[in-house]
Write a structure and sequence with these properties.
Elements (H helix, E strand, L loop, with lengths): L1 E6 L3 H11 L5 E5 L22 H12 L5 E5 L2 E5 L5 E5 L4 E9 L4 E3 L6 H4 L4 E2 L2 H4 L8 E4 L4 H12 L4 E4 L8 H6 L3 E3 L3 E5 L4 E5 L5 E3 L1 E3 L3 E3 L4 H5 L3 E3 L4 E3 L12 E3 L10 H20 L13
Parallel strand pairs: 1-2, 1-6, 2-3, 6-19, 8-15, 9-10, 9-15, 10-11
Antiparallel strand pairs: 4-5, 5-6, 7-16, 12-13, 13-14, 17-18
Helix pairs in contact: 1-2, 1-8
Length: about 300
């Protein structure tokens, strides 16, 4: 029986582990090696690491954690979680079992990309989700936004305000868009259906019944979900975000299940590497204090039916 099992070894999970190990608590991080930003060549907006590849930053995180004798990383994916406070058992796809008094969920979310040939291949490089993370590198150049929900209008207006004077919204059959307001903001509207995209350094977009268009990048706000994840298996309370569900947490990242904490992208409707590190730090400290003082950090109340 260890003190804490952390599901997910990316920025939130490793930040949580570091806090617990500095308190000499036993920690197992279970990680499947597929962080959400694994296709991105560089992370931006992180003090000290601006422009550094996410994989390189994570390698540094792991190296830091390896200095602590109470930490262990298990390669694998959690496929089952049983038990409760002080008696959790986690099973991996490799047949391993980890018993822990506490759990920190840091496994992230699943992005559900629209069905468009070439889109998945460009994800993280020329197909992007966050102007704050990637907009500066393509500023002042032609940009496109692929609408999959009403959030596309919000995204297009942000890009048009401070990143480019040349922003095109691909309607793509989406509903609920205020086209007149978008046009008044100087955003171009493209109603023809996107057929496919290609390109290594730019986006070559093929449209139905029209010539090919080229953009420096294509932005979109993909739908996300938690289906089939440990968060769903445990049945932690969820809230609705603009792109999909996320885990409800309190001020110390506690969920509505005693002994279960959550951190990173799965516990917020807004995603950023800086937020993940901060959430993980809070979760690690909150988890440690719950081990010392079981009544100090209470789980959230269940959401009203």
């Amino acid at each position: 029986m260890i003190d804490t099992a952390i599901v997910g070894g990316s920025f939130a999970g490793l930040s949580a582990a570091l806090q617990l190990c500095r308190a000499s608590r036993s920690v197992v991080v279970i990680d499947d090696g597929r962080p959400r930003n694994r296709t991105s060549p560089a992370a931006h907006g992180i003090p000290g690491w601006d422009g550094v590849a996410p994989a390189e930053i994570l390698a540094r995180f792991r190296a830091d954690l390896s200095a602590y004798p109470t930490a262990r990383i298990v390669e694998g994916r959690v496929v089952a979680v049983k038990g409760g406070l002080d008696t959790f058992t986690l099973s991996t796809d490799a047949g391993q079992e980890v018993q822990a008094r506490r759990i920190i969920l840091a496994h992230g979310l699943r992005d559900r990309l629209p069905e468009l040939p070439g889109l998945a291949e460009g994800w993280g490089r020329t197909v992007l989700h966050c102007p704050y993370c990637h907009g500066y590198e393509v500023k002042g150049r032609p940009l496109a936004v692929l609408a999959s929900s009403a959030m596309a209008a919000h995204q297009a207006q942000i890009l048009r305000a401070d990143w480019s004077d040349d922003v095109t919204l691909l309607v793509n059959g989406a509903e609920g868009l205020d086209i007149a307001a978008l046009e008044a903001a100087g955003i171009k509207i493209e109603r023809r259906k996107p057929v496919s995209i290609a390109g290594e350094d730019t986006v070559q977009l093929r449209l139905a019944d029209g010539p090919e268009a080229e953009f420096a990048a294509l932005f979109l706000a993909p739908a996300v979900d938690l289906s089939g994840t440990p968060a769903e298996t445990l049945g932690v309370g969820l809230a609705d975000g603009p792109m999909g569900p996320f885990v409800r947490v309190g001020p110390m990242q506690q969920t509505d299940i005693a002994g279960v904490f959550a951190a990173g992208d799965l516990s917020s409707p807004m995603w950023n590497l800086n937020f993940a590190v901060g959430d993980g730090t809070r979760a690690g400290i909150g988890c440690h204090q719950s081990l010392l003082f079981p009544d100090f950090i209470q789980p959230l109340e269940k959401a009203a039916a």
